[in-house]
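Input record (Table S2, row 256):
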Amino acid sequence: MTDDLHGRVEPDRAAPLHTAPRGPDYRPRHVAIIMDGNGRWALRRGLPRTVGHCAGVEALRGVVKAAPDLGIKILTCYAFSTENWKRPKDEVDTLMSLLLEYCRLEAENLHRNGVRINAIGRIHELPPAQQQEIARAVALTRGNDRLILNLAVNYGGQAELVDAFRSLAAEVQSGRLAPEAIDAEVVRRHLYTADLPDPDLIIRTAGEMRLSNFLLWQSAYAEIWVTDVYWPDFTREHLEQALRDYARRERRFGAL
Ligand code: FPP
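Output record (farnesyl diphosphate complex):
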């Protein structure tokens, strides 16, 4: 994985931990979404699952458009997991084509709207065309700061930790890092998200109450919001509903 594919985003370390004051203006800076339910949305309409994924891209467009107006600075979307390769070939092919198309057709528009595209995951294992389009979109939008759209592609939380541990082990082996020097901050700096703050809010659509290998380290203190709405039906209004719920939560980060 190259630095180019990640981009470098300076985290706002001076920012407060978003603990107080509560109220409707208490907004998450980083929202991460598990976009689930595309298949069920399609099957319910008697359509192939792949049509559900196409509709899912439309929902993604709507949410990316709405996010900056709602005060969101970073939006991480789980587009393809390391486990999704186990799906039937035609479905994997559709998802890969949608990724290519999204980067190809949407990058200019996102660029005009001040969106910076970033990608996390084992990007180097994707087909070359997808790697190229992602790199192109990342490079084109590098200077933007209205919203970071962070696409999790061929992403798995366990794979991310394995990659971090491998890189830490290599540094220890070469004598550049002492084992005693490894703490949570050092581990954090070896994650794909080293340059991003942790998500404040994780949204999951389609009702399942699990993380499905998403942002395992980073979700330590994330608030979780689950809706039964299938991803293709998810709109700005649902996002606003999630933000209203978030504003009522009390975040203590282990303190009292
Ligand atoms: C889960 O729904 C969704 C996915 C595995 C893929 C998510 C992808 C998109 C929303 C569109 C692709 C976007 C880009 C940028 C490529 P599911 O298929 O597991 O639904 P089900 O649980 O109802 O079967």
